[in-house]
Amino acid sequence: MTRTPLFSLSIASILFASLIGSHATQPVEPHLLAGLTWRNVGPFRGGRVAAVSGVIGQPGVFYMGLPGGGVWKTTSAGQTWYPVFDSVTAVSSIGAVEVAPSDPNIVYAGAGDLITGLGINEGNGVYKSTDAGATWQHMGLDESKQIPSMLVDPRDPNVVLVAAQGDVHKKTDVRGVFRSTDGGRTWTKTLYVDDETGIQKLARAFDVPNVIFATTVPHYQSPTPRPRPAADTGRTGTALYKSTDGGVTWKEIVGGGLPRMRGRTSIAVAMNTNAQRVFIITNSGLWRSDDGGTTWRQMAADDERIRNGQGGYNCGVYVDTKNPDVVYTISTTSYKSTDGGKTFTGFVGYSGDDPQQMWIDPTDSKRMLVGFDQGAVVTLDAGATWSSWYNQSTEQIYHISTDNSYPYWIYATQQDAGAIRTRSRGNLGAITPLDWSPVPGWEWGTIVADPLDPDVVYGSGNGIVKITYPGEQWIDVSPGADPSLGLRQGISEPIVWAP
Asked: Which residue(s) pair with 63 in the sheet?
């Protein structure tokens, strides 16, 4: 989950102002700032990836969308990455990226990361590039807020489907499946449930593009508690729909053994099966249909790993584009099945790496892109070797602060990668990963140094710890450590010093 950099910088500014007292109110002479330039002090590693896509016929070209960092591109199969969305200043959160299979110059991006949780990164609709990401044009659907999935027809780059979750803060009809046949100039809403229910995932088989599946998701949080229904109606807001005409009309799939779905869902349609083999994963596990969604059976029912291990945070199922018996799922790490989903073994990553998205080339299944909480990695040999995620400065920073030493230390808390500190001036002529070191602290907490003693540092998040340098010993000093006090405790406690 993310916080915006502006919020983090504001906290740092308030802390700084409290330390220097009345001098903070004095105007700064412009010439004193004229020589300052931005420089990258890290992190020198990737962060959470919200969307992935690749270019058919160009083995080294892939795109990734970030929850707070726009769209990035590699032309070297993941050896180097660079941002291509920085010219867009209205939004930075991306929930979906799709390259048109029939035209590698056309790229669509859906703004707004799908995850709701503690931090919501909202967007303002659809963007399109006709020059392989060099420039972008806004294509409407401004109020869709969060777009977690898109599909571009493999035969026509102007036919696009958008899954819109909608505004989580209010009831609105700008949610559902939107379809364009003119490259995004106009949109038609083809699937709409109600003003509280959005669309989370769209899926099709590349070789049968008219057959499309969509999963819905309840996506409205009332500002006041809702009364619990007197009886369980069996409806959760999460449902499965199918279209056989390219997304023009839809029909809900019910019965046939389809499980009652909750939480985050993902769906995949296998190629070379005439769109008959379909996999869906939800909080109740992995389910498979071999008749286009008419009947379902649970797969790997006894394997606790093959389900949404983190509820709504990450979830995914993908099918090899050559062999329908090769299936991939993601939870706290990724898993692979070679027997149609009956059994699974580990694939790429370790427990806690939290994979988020996967893209498999429909014409070359050895070529994949996987986006983790730790960054994006590429394989061109079906997973035998992978590129690094230590070559993309996209890690998300929740909070940032500095101490009063010289050269001063910069402290930051990272998404799913703990807390760190780095010197503001490296000893080797530049700040490199060698200047970064871990700090005992929580990913979304606050970390600040004592203004009178920079060797004493406090970190929050699930409590408060005190770290003493250079030995790096730490102890728990949380007020909440004493249960007799009856204090409430959050997971992002601010720490502010009295002037």
From this structure: 53, 73
